UniProtKB/TrEMBL annotation:
The lineage of its organism: Bacteria, Pseudomonadati, Pseudomonadota, Gammaproteobacteria, Thiotrichales. GO terms for biological process: phosphorelay signal transduction system. It holds the Pfam family Response_reg. This is Response regulatory domain-containing protein. InterPro entries: CheY-like_superfamily, Sig_transdc_resp-reg_receiver. Residues 1-63 form the Response regulatory domain. SUPFAM superfamilies: CheY-like.
């Protein structure tokens, strides 16, 4: 099963008011790939190589609370020192 089919099944299994946000993260970056993902029911699309700015933009678009202003390096530094 690929991501398109998985998305269709998830959409079919959840009631309209309980639909999860589904974001494609794929190496498929040819013309029409994004449209295929959206047509299958995905909410958004990120193509690889994934840039941190792209992930942040998608999360901000779909999350109700704003993301904290923290860089990936700051987060890594905190994790390593913990």
């Amino acid at each position: 099963m690929d991501g398109l089919e998985a998305t269709r099944r998830i959409r079919a299994d959840f009631p309209p008011d309980r639909q999860p946000i589904i974001v494609a993260m794929t190496a498929n970056a040819m013309d029409g790939d994004k449209q295929n993902c959206l047509a299958a029911g995905m909410n958004d699309y990120i193509s690889k190589p994934v840039l941190p700015e792209a992930v942040e933009a998608v999360l901000e678009r779909w999350c109700s609370a704003p993301l904290p202003s923290i860089t990936i390096q700051e987060n890594l530094d905190e994790t390593v020192s913990a």
